[in-house]
Amino acid sequence: MLTSERKALILEVLRRDGRVIAKAVSQELQLSEDTIRRDLRDLAGEGLLQRVHGGALPASPAMADLAARREVSPEGKVAIGRAAARLVRPGQVVLLDGGTTALQLARHLAHGLEATIVTHSPTVALELANHPGIAVELIGGRLFRHSMVAVGAAAAEAIARIRADLFFLGVTGIHPELGLTTGDAEEAAIKRALSRQAAETIVLASREKLGAASPFQIAPLSEASAMVVEADVPDETVEPYRKAGVTLIRS
């Protein structure tokens, strides 16, 4: 079998089953596991999957640059943002992550709402600048351009002084076993810091992130109080998260 044929088969297994187990593929093709692992390395280098112990999972489209991410599930992100915005109550202190779905949440906060939004995203802060009832606290630090958020020691120190009611978390991957993941170690650390300072962490979970994985874990799935998902995501897709004890909020 040609290399291109093996890789095409691996991607078909990934599409069909939602994961690839290297040992099973090697047995099916009567090839060594080293050969399959080499193919997985190549496909991961092309951004077509995310390698994990024993095989691979789908790579999240949310790993793309900001301009490309704006084109992924735009209607779903609007719906999730609108539903998440309804969870914010008057007088609350809310930590709001960066990213395209968080921006939609900011846009859909009720006009008459009075609350405090703390964010490390300049883009989110600018979106809220003209909201009459929202007090905006902007966390500073080194700008991580991929997500347009502040990271680093200065951001971590500022976050440690905050006590919030809610944290709306953006991720690039959500998996029942691997948990909540993103593509950068420093950004993952900042997200963990934000989650620690909130009574509840709510994940903004657009469909392309479900079942996908990225290189750096933010937290296990058990750290999430709830996930906001699109209304038409099939029940079988979200059932593993429900079984894990995460409250599902349909947008």
From TrEMBL:
<dbReference type="InterPro" id="IPR036388">
    <property type="entry name" value="WH-like_DNA-bd_sf"/>
</dbReference>
<dbReference type="InterPro" id="IPR014036">
    <property type="entry name" value="DeoR-like_C"/>
</dbReference>
<dbReference type="InterPro" id="IPR036390">
    <property type="entry name" value="WH_DNA-bd_sf"/>
</dbReference>
<keyword id="KW-0804">Transcription</keyword>
<dbReference type="InterPro" id="IPR037171">
    <property type="entry name" value="NagB/RpiA_transferase-like"/>
</dbReference>
<dbReference type="InterPro" id="IPR001034">
    <property type="entry name" value="DeoR_HTH"/>
</dbReference>
<feature type="domain" description="HTH deoR-type">
    <location>
        <begin position="3"/>
        <end position="58"/>
    </location>
</feature>
<keyword id="KW-0238">DNA-binding</keyword>
<protein>
    <submittedName>
        <fullName>DeoR family transcriptional regulator</fullName>
    </submittedName>
</protein>
<dbReference type="InterPro" id="IPR018356">
    <property type="entry name" value="Tscrpt_reg_HTH_DeoR_CS"/>
</dbReference>
<dbReference type="InterPro" id="IPR050313">
    <property type="entry name" value="Carb_Metab_HTH_regulators"/>
</dbReference>
<keyword id="KW-0805">Transcription regulation</keyword>
<dbReference type="Pfam" id="PF00455">
    <property type="entry name" value="DeoRC"/>
</dbReference>
<keyword id="KW-0678">Repressor</keyword>
<dbReference type="Pfam" id="PF08220">
    <property type="entry name" value="HTH_DeoR"/>
</dbReference>
